[in-house]
């Protein structure tokens, strides 16, 4: 029983992840909301890119015969090139699908960035309008202070 108290308890992670953005904003501030949105954005990007890479790019790259046959016993940079675009045959029409898939991922990332930027900007403006002005947010410029003689 004494050793079980040293095992990390991960229940806090589930409770922290299930917070709504409004609860997170009121307890931790705008930075925490932006941080969670960045994590969610990254998950969306890598999920989409992983699916495109696994189901479109990898089969196209492996189907090419540009490089030598794959030998599982020799793992080097040469054998790993079989999984890259360098294995697609010269002049192959599959190259267009490969490039189109990469552009699709780029367009998806740009689309997500646009929407996340708009969402975070609207949250930021709403947060600033809802908070009361604090004295430390203002700067006062004082000019013409007389210099004492001597």
From TrEMBL:
Family matches, as Pfam families: RSN1_TM
InterPro entries: Csc1-like, CSC1/OSCA1-like_N
Signal peptide coordinates: none
Alphabetical UniProt keywords: Membrane, Transmembrane, Transmembrane helix
Record GO cellular component, one term: plasma membrane
TM helices/strands, residue ranges: 34-60, 67-88, 94-114
Boundaries of every CSC1/OSCA1-like N-terminal transmembrane domain copy: 8-116
GO terms of molecular function: calcium-activated cation channel activity
Protein name, per record: CSC1/OSCA1-like N-terminal transmembrane domain-containing protein
